[in-house]
Every structure is written in structure tokens, then in C-alpha cells.
Amino acid sequence: MDYHYQDFTDSNYRRLLGVAKRSYEFINVRNYRWDGGGKVIINRHDLDASVHRAAKMSAIEKEEGVSSVYFVYLHSCFYNVFEKGVTELLKEIADNGHEIGLHYEPWFYGLDYSGAGAGGEARECANTSVRQEFEHYLIYEKEIIETLMGVKVSAFSFHNPDRGGWTSFGDETACGLINMYSDYFKENYGYCSDSDGYWRYRRLEDVLLKAEEDRLQILTHPESWTPGVMKPRERVQRCAEGRLESAMRQHDDRLKAMGRVNEK
After folding, report:
1. Residue 136 vs residues 97, 109, 111, 158: alpha-carbon distances, Å
2. Whole-angstrom Cα distance, residue 19 to residue 157?
């Protein structure tokens, strides 16, 4: 099977934006109920592993006159939103004209939307209780991002929605935030995703060239897009090694600045 690893480079991403603009207009996520005519794209990025790669992608989009929405994940093991350099990069993404969303993982809090294992009333009762906690933590995480970045969060996307049954949560909005996995999107938007570093359903270039759908949601993960061709695991490893190098550099610089011993 051809996974088209050659697709996932910075230069090809820029080229694909050009292909997309031939047939589509890029719109902000808050305009998702589009009624302006023509074909439209909501370009979505889930920041699972690299804010640095996301900042690079946002700069390319700014140069190409394209707006996107970047979903920040507070529980990533690859980056810390409270680290000064990461916070500055997130603000840079917003300054490049892009929206900021929340990449939300209810399962982090042990929230399971698949119910009590029974049908009818038992399941409804279980999910009502879960829904209350779901909304509590949704607001909590939204406010963290808004306070940290000084921006308005307009939407959320689930992280690994299959876990805990969250693919069945079809509400169009929750706590005033647009749900990117809502029934509305499933029914009204085509979908193309690069989850796990390859085209899981359809190759993006094929979708853009055919331009058969009037509304399209594209999901990409910035860590999957690199300067040169790499395999999926190599791209993620690149993020991990970059984080290690940055952490050690900060450690060494701090000891040097304070005149302390740093034996190697």
C-alpha cells in the first residue's frame, strides 16, 4: 500500500494550499454554517506533539493568505503550554491570523460517554452525570488557554474520540464552543485526515483535485509535516528529540549564567 509519505513536507503543504484555493475558499470555524455560496474549507490542525511545527505551518498559511484553526492540547507529553517558548509560539500562531481551539480529552478525567453498559434509562442517567463533568472540564481547559494566550476559544475537537465513546457525542455546541465532531459536521462536511501520519481515509490531493464536496473539513497534525520526507514514527521522534535538546540547552544555559558546576 502506498502511504504517500512524500506528501508530508513543508513545500508540498504550500503546494496543496494552492491546489485548494483553485476550487475552495478557506473560512473561519465560527462561520461553519456557511451560506455565502461557493465551495469552502475549514482547515483544522490538532496540536498533538509539536507547537514548533504548528508555528511553521501557520507562517506558510499566512504567506498563502489562508486562515486555519489550531487546537491546543493541554495534556501532551511532547510540549508544555506554560513553557515560555511554547506560549510565545502559540501567540505567534494567533498573531498570524489563525483561530485557536481546544483539543479536548475527556478520558483524561476518566469520563466515559459509552454509558453504563445498559440501554435506555440506565444509559441516559449515566451520561447525564458524565455530561456535567464534561462541561466542567471543558470550561476549565478553555479558560486556561484564553487566560494564557489572551484569545477567544471558539471550538473544540476531541483527542482520540474513540476512547470513551466520544464519537457518539453529536451536539453541535457545548458550553458555547463548536464541536468539530458534531452530527452537523458529519452530515454537512466532507472529511480528510492525516491522523497517525498518513491519509487514513482519502488522500488530500485527490480530494482537492476532484473538488466534489461543497464543504470540506481538513484535519492535519503539524508534527506530521517536515522539511524533508520521513516516515511517521521518525517525524514523531524528531519532535521528541527536539524537545530533549531544548530542555538540555535551557539547563546548560541556566547553570552557565549562574556560574554553577555542570559536569558532563
Report:
1. 29, 11, 11, 15
2. 26
Rounded CA-CA distance 21/40 in Å is 9
Note whether residue 75 is domain-resident: yes
E strand segments, 10-158:
25-26, 40-47, 69-73, 99-104, 155-158
* 240 occurs within a structural domain: no
Q: Give yes or no for residue 123 having a pLDDT over 90.
A: no
- The domain that holds 146 is classified in CATH as 3.20.20
Residue 249 lies in a domain: no
Confidence of residue 74 (pLDDT cuts 50, 70, 90): very high
Tell me how far CA of residue 179 lies from CA of 29, 152, 156, 158, in angstroms.
10, 15, 5, 8
pLDDT for residue 264: 85
State how far the Cα of 104 lies from the Cα of 148, in Å rounded to an integer: 16
- pTM score, whole prediction: 0.93
The torsion angles phi and psi of 33, rounded to 5 degrees, stand at: -85, 65
DSSP-assigned states of every residue in 50-78: -HHHHHHHHHHHHHTT---EEEEETT-SS
Containing structural domain, residue 35: 5-229
